[in-house]
Amino acid sequence: MVLAGLLGAAAVPALGRPAMAQDAEPPGAIRQRERHLLNDDWSFVRGDLKSAADADADGTDWSAVTLPHTWNAKDSIDDEPGYYRGPGWYRRALRVDDRWRDKRVFLYFEGANQVADVFVDGAPVGRHVGGYVAFCVDVTDQLRRVKPGRAATIAVRVDNTHNPDIPPLWADFTFYGGIYRNVWLVVTDPVHIDLLDHGSSGIYVDTPDVSAASADVRVRGRVVNAEPETTWVDVVSTVVDARGGEVTSRRTRLEIGRGEARDFDLSLPAIRRPRLWSPESPHLYKVITVVDDGRGGRDRVDAPLGLRWYSVDAATGFHLNGSSYPLRGTNRHQDIVGKGNALSDAEHVRDLQIIKSMGANVLRLAHYPQAPAVLEAADRLGVILWEEAPLVSTATMSDQFAANSVNMQVETIRQHYNHPSIVFRGYMNEIFLRPPEPEPAGYERFVVNLARRLEKTTRAEDPRRLTVMAVDRDDRYNSSGIADVPMILGWNLYHGWYYDTPEGFAKHLDKEHADHPNRPLWLSEYGADSDSRLHRVDVQYLPVDPATGGVTYQDQSIEFQQLFNEVYMRAINERPFLVGTTLWAQFEFGSEFRSGAIPHVNQKGVTHADRSPKDVFYLYQALWRDEPVLHIAGHEWTHRTGTAPDAPWGAGRQPVSQPVKVYSNLDSVELFINGRSLGRKQPDDVCAATWQVPFVDGGNEIVARGVANGKVVTDSVRVAFTYQAPRLSDASVPFRRLAVSAGAIVQYTDPQSLVWAEDRAYTDGGWGAIGGTTGLMRKWVNRSSEDPLYQTYREGMTAYRFDVPAGRYRVRLRFTEPSENARGNRVFSVRLNEHVLVNDLDLVAVAGPRTAYDLDGIVAATNADGLKVVFDPTVGRAVVSGIDVTRL
Ligand code: GCB
């Protein structure tokens, strides 16, 4: 859309109602300062303009956008590698209100990724570096040049180009660009509480001493006098309780010269028998600070206040308000796949509610500071936070990188100082994961020194919080000395996923604990990817490659993720020395380069990207919540297939025994299939109970039943089961259809609910592959959303055989070239019995590498031969990803 010409006054939208007007009147009846949300009526163009003045000119293809906005919501999830990293411009008209004539006017951005330059009518008013915290610019002088009632053009150039001096540099999440958080217009009197201290509220509340008996509150801040003469101001800080009643208060008087600012520091009379803040009882007070010059110049800023005290101990973990308090929870990115990082406040709050409903008491904000709405929700709902600066995986050995890193930490601390939910402050994640190549001399020393500097800054800025750093499984953290810098060391461990078996992580933690008995430890990440289209009947650990120590196949089934999390939770519960544990991750999130079963998405979420819980969510709920939890861990496995291998010839369709698991914190649970009880079981130490359930061909109703506090609790799920006879020509089980996911150890359910069975070797009378080896392509598939079907494959087989009865069959074949093979390096022919389906198929030539390619054919089978899909290689080895055989 092209917006013609300069936006005249007539086109300028009216501002909404001041956001704070509905607040209760504070003591002294001074309202909070005027704030207007400025999210509407922006225009956006991706790319650069020659100058800010062009934001006012014709000739650019602007499109209308509403904030929060990112330009990478879609290009980060398409088949094309990479996403746009460069500049984009936003502009908006702002009608200048007559009432602002003697006021100060500011623009407050909650976040823009990652460098933002702000202009008013072409004149620069401020620049901010760093994509994950707020910044504030004073636009008073520029707006004074605009006639009241006329409009100014606000233009913002935002740039998310990779910049070696701005963290984060490389990480497993997408660096979406844009003004992806709220923008506010703030109007104050000339005498006001400072807004320009690193984007903070200007008020810093401390609780130097809190106990059950009493709490000390100290309030610091700075008052600015933009009047043309010296003035006296009264500053009053008052603590009010949840009902608005005054609890304690103190005042002071300041003389402030014209154009000057003065600091104040108020120690309020102690609060006797305070109501404490905890995740179970997140009681909030409020600190209202008012300045008044007695001549109409006034300002007010409110800050949340939660009274709690805590400590950490290497042997006994975390303590809150005097009691041992194991922190159990999760990690979250600000991300919704398809929307990127441009989440509304309501979406942020919903995420926190989900986390709370799972029973988590702690949340690590990975790997950067998150929106104000997140922190407010954590205060209110009761979730302890670990907040961290976005130094991830690597650093640039430059003074500017170090300076930006320190500045980001200072901004984060000052902006979020008053949130009682924040207890932990981090500043690095797996910083030695990807050193620059080649690694410059002195790099390790640089990184360790940067950590020391960040630690020192954090302690100086925020002496009452606890510092923490997350590291990956690498000796370098110990050998370099960086592990000793923070107060707490967090380990991100992926035993059983990227390497080793799941139990390995407990051994690792035990060794660390024994080697460093005075170092408090946190399990900051652990997790496994999953996809609800993938299921594993006999779930087991992944085989470990003896040569590399890595796993040979990544089982992304829902069932493996459950097993993995159970193993971890069992070991976690046995290790009281752990300060905290935070699973990876609460929600699936966008990571452009990722290529699991759902490309561009990190699938380790215990909740899907759309926020629906995976079954494993209930493992945590059962473990962590006191309310009754009873959940069949099979709501995502509603279509199954299988064989009764020992069924006698001619016996018809037999029940097939497959496991069904229930997560519950009830004493005992009874499971039923189609109305028949399978007995009662007691959930184990990780709240799991599993039954072998005889599924019949067709519909099955599974019901779990328990009793909690005298009340019956149930859960149920319907499962459509497709029986496959062990011998396909058994007339008592007329053959219908059989689909196989070549190379897979899991079942795959396609969009039509057809279940593609696990691959297997041919057995007489049945079906399967003759020869060949299986493989898993760790790359996304072009031109299909059925990635998991195409990603697994078998190659080098001579045939797949199906010993079906005589008849006509439709055969659908699914192919992809899994390697970066060039054209001509793999050429093969495919026959359906004697009938040639394709000669000299070269997948790269017909489709390209890693691209879905399908062939269908019809063939007649005779009793003697059944159906053979024969692969004849001309060059290299034949490959196939799926075969679907339907009787016509
Ligand atoms: C990690 C990182 C995190 C990744 C995660 C994963 O160790 O800290 O950013 O997303 O592993 O899933 O690989």
From TrEMBL:
Entry keywords, A to Z: Glycosidase, Hydrolase, Signal
Pfam families, per the entry: DUF4982, Glyco_hydro_2, Glyco_hydro_2_C, Glyco_hydro_2_N, Malectin
Signal peptide bounds: 1-21
Keyword Nucleus: no
Keyword Lipoprotein belongs to the record: no
Domain Glycosyl hydrolases family 2 sugar binding: 81-186
Domain DUF4982 stretches: 659-713
Boundaries of every Malectin domain copy: 776-852
InterPro entries: Beta-gal/glucu_dom_sf, DUF4982, Galactose-bd-like_sf, GH, GH2_Domain-Containing, Glyco_hydro_2, Glyco_hydro_2_cat, Glyco_hydro_2_N
Lineage: Bacteria, Bacillati, Actinomycetota, Actinomycetes, Streptosporangiales
Segments forming domain Glycoside hydrolase family 2 catalytic: 318-532
Example of a GO MF term: hydrolase activity
Family statement drawn from the similarity comment of this UniProt entry: Belongs to the glycosyl hydrolase 2 family.
SUPFAM superfamilies found in the cross-reference section: (Trans)glycosidases, beta-Galactosidase/glucuronidase domain, Galactose-binding domain-like
Residue span(s) of domain Glycoside hydrolase family 2 immunoglobulin-like beta-sandwich: 207-308
Name used for this protein in its record: Glycoside hydrolase family 2 TIM barrel-domain containing protein
